[in-house]
Amino acid sequence: MTRIRIVVVVGARPQFIKSAPLIQELLSHRHRFRLTLVHSGQHYDPEMSTIFFSELKLPAPALNLRVGSGSHAYQTATIMLRLERFLRESQPDVVIAPGDTNTTLATALTGAKLAYQVAHLEAGLRSGDMDMPEEINRRLTDHCSTLLFAPTRTALANLAREGLAKDTWLTGDTMVDAMQRVMPTVKRREQKLLERMDLDDQDYVLVTLHRPSNVDNKDRLRQIIRNLERMRKVKLVFPMHPRTRKKLRNLKTNIKQNRFGICFVPPQGYVETLGLLRNAKCLLTDSGGMQKEAFLLRIPCVTLRSTTEWPETLVARANRLILDPRKIPTTVAIAKSMNLALKPPKTPFGDGTASQKIRKILERRVTVREPH
Ligand code: UD1
Fold first, then answer.
1. Which of 62, 101, 240, 306 is most buried, judging by how many CB atoms fall within 10 Å of its CB?
2. Domain limits, CATH 3.40.50.2000, in the chain
3. The one catalytic residue among 39, 43, 120, 210
């Protein structure tokens, strides 16, 4: 039987996580698929990249495009140029673009322009906020992909509303698959992690902030930090994304000190992050993926944004959106009262078999091109 040649392109932290279960699934069906993994190099620090490859047991990428940091146009265009060369040589039957980063958009555009089949993993998410670079990436990626894998019913409906109803599939979310697989390791390691960080179960709030809308504006970032400092009675654990670290240094915030009960730590791996989240009393974040992880772990979430691409977390009243940093202390204080009635696996995000469903659809829907 002729194998389907698949190129999966990843490059940023959330992409490693959401692609991992699908990559494992494809690797365990080697007789049907020939998989090539490409890393764009968008994230390059070991703590933003390498650690995820080992924790998620991802194979080493066949190629690293080494794009590094730069403007959106630079990253997108450079990935496109380098990827185009590789795709022309490798002639895959389908290119997979996961998520909503600049790497995602560059991958989908390059694949589509070469007239390859392009599959978007995590299709149909919409925040409705075109000021978010990810929203632009998602919309454009969906519109130039030929296979659309939607994680939720809402995402599927969003696609239909934009006239994208052909080859769209409700698969569930591969991040549920990823979380289920790593959970035994999380549970095994979390006690040591809490001891190492001098934390007790439920005695701290986990904070992650990295969106340009929160950290790129000096005044807003200053206001956020000031309001975190106001919560003196609450211990805050703040793993810092490199973007946030850089911006805080520009503000001359002393990120080594723990003066106001804020414990700044480096970016954590996947296992550590889930361990910290599972034991937190609340999550304060602007991340997309972590809103959903908090929901699945039944941890109340406060999101420092005006929109979310995961409205299901709002419907279940497990997540609250706030834009004004002055509202942080009071919202975090009442977060415990949030309704967290929905329990996995009755969540709207699937039951942990998304990667299996996607693999089966790929087997049916991808046309193998000649000659090999
Ligand atoms: C990217 C994604 C975002 C995702 C996030 C997860 C886009 C538009 N955004 O944002 O959707 O939520 O990844 O982390 O694609 N940097 C380092 N080391 C690294 C990577 C980045 O120091 O390994 C620094 C650089 O100074 C860079 C900045 O972080 O300028 C931002 O990195 P970039 O990849 O451009 O975007 P993210 O903010 O990480």
1. 101
2. 4-173+350-365, 187-339
3. 210
Q: Which CATH class is domain 4-173+350-365?
A: alpha beta
CATH topology for the 187-339 domain: Rossmann fold (3.40.50)
245 lines ligand 1 (CB under 6 A): no
Query: What integer pLDDT is reported at residue 336 of this predicted model?
Result: 79
* 133 CA closest ligand 1 atom index: 8
Which ranges of 122-280 would DSSP assign to H, the alpha helix?
A: 133-143, 153-161, 174-196, 212-215, 218-229, 242-250, 270-278
CA of 274 to the centre of ligand 1 (A): 20
Q: Is 210 annotated in the active site?
A: yes
Long-range contacts of 317-322 (CB under 8 A, 24+ apart): 318/294, 318/342, 319/291, 319/294, 319/295
Instruction: Determine contact, residues 124/142, Cβ cutoff 8 Å.
Output: yes
Per-residue model confidence as pLDDT tens digits over 280-293: 999 999 999 999 99
Q: Quickly tell me which residue has 């997979």 as its tokens.
A: 96
Digit-coded pLDDT (tens) for 68-107: 999 999 999 999 999 999 999 999 999 999 999 999 999 9
| 344 pLDDT more than 70 | no
Report CA(13)–ligand 1 centroid distance (Å): 8
Distances (CA, A) of 297 to 26, 82, 169, 309, 337: 27, 39, 26, 18, 16
The per-residue pLDDT for range 177-219, each reduced to its tens digit, is 999 999 999 999 999 999 999 999 889 999 999 999 999 999 9
**Is the C-beta atom of 69 inside 6 A of ligand 1?**
yes
Q: How far is CA 10 from the centre of its chain?
A: 11
| pTM of the shown model | 0.96
133 lines ligand 1 (CB under 6 A): yes
